[in-house]
Amino acid sequence: MTKKLIISFIFLLLLSSCKTYNVLEEEQASRDMQDFKFNPEYEYKIRKDDKITLSVWGQDDLSVGSVYGIYNSNEVYGKWLLVDKNGNIEIPRLGTTFVVGKSVPELKEEIKTRLKKWLVNPVIDVKVLNKEITVMGEVRNPAVIQVDKDQNTLLELVSKAGGFEMYANLRLIKILRQEGENVRVTNIDLSKMKDVPNQNIVLHPGDYVIVPSKKSKDFDKRISTIIPFATVTSAAAILIGLL
């Protein structure tokens, strides 16, 4: 009788431990999601190596890759301003201009104000050509996808990549996002239909989406939520190696 009681006690203890572990996992996932929660105020900030076009209405000599002039707009011919290692671009007439960390509206307003020295009411447009989100793994068309918007949902990007493959592991989708010198990682679970609206997070330009296959047993070996001193490209290469 005593032996049965001991076995029953151990069994209940194991069940309790499993439940505690699952709760801890859920709490960790919730904390991770908080770092990727929707921010309606988010605006893309210009980065080093970005390709920028500048359009000034009726002023082809001040425009580079202008959307207003058909002879100056084709990216194929290198009609852009490249942000150099110091964070600068060379703007016609205005010269060296620091742009890293500025949003597109901020840069537009700055250029507009400076051009008023020569133009009464300059009409300008600024565009970042290489705003991209990378989708890798078990999707039909893995690709680097150009986006015009700053706010893009996960399912939007998966749709542009052709949708999930049959063997996609919807429980362990990883999102990587650069934060300074570190890369933040979160796990997304799209396996339960009732949770999809909450898990369909908003992605930003520069994010990586990695969809593992169901056979990838090592993909979720307690990967840290922050990978220090890395780029999203290098971090993605490490994680994709686990597929």
TrEMBL record:
User: How would you describe this protein's topology in the membrane?
Assistant: Multi-pass membrane protein
Domain (Polysaccharide export protein N-terminal): give its ranges.
Answer: 40-128
Write out the annotated subcellular location.
Cell outer membrane
List the keywords (alphabetical).
Cell outer membrane, Ion transport, Lipoprotein, Membrane, Palmitate, Polysaccharide transport, Porin, Signal, Sugar transport, Transmembrane, Transmembrane beta strand, Transmembrane helix, Transport
SLBB domain spans which residues?
Answer: 131-211
Membrane-crossing residue ranges in chain numbering: 223-242
One family from Pfam that matches here is Poly_export
- Signal peptide boundaries: 1-22
Tell me if Membrane is a UniProt keyword of this record: yes
- InterPro entries in UniProt: Poly_export, Poly_export_N, SLBB_dom
Q: What domain of life?
A: Bacteria
Gene3D superfamilies named in the record: Outer membrane lipoprotein wza domain like
Q: Which protein family is named in the record?
A: Belongs to the BexD/CtrA/VexA family.
Q: Know the name of this protein? A: Polysaccharide export protein
Upper classification of the organism: Bacteria, Pseudomonadati, Bacteroidota, Flavobacteriia, Flavobacteriales
